[in-house]
Here is the input.
Amino acid sequence: MALLNVDKLSVHFGDEGTPFRAVDRVSYSVNQGEVVGIVGESGSGKSVSSLAIMGLIDYP
Here is the structure.
C-alpha cells in the first residue's frame, strides 16, 4: 500500500521567459514499511522537492 505517491512533480522559479527548473517531472512512491532517503549534490532540488510535497513553497 502506497503511503505517498509523487507523480511528475515540477517546481520552476523565475518568469515565464526564463524559468529555472529546480525540480522537473520527478515521480516516486513510498510504500508502508519502506524507509527512503533522498540524496544528491548541493543544489539538486532535494529540499525544494520536500517543501513542495508538504505545500510549504510560497508562489508569487
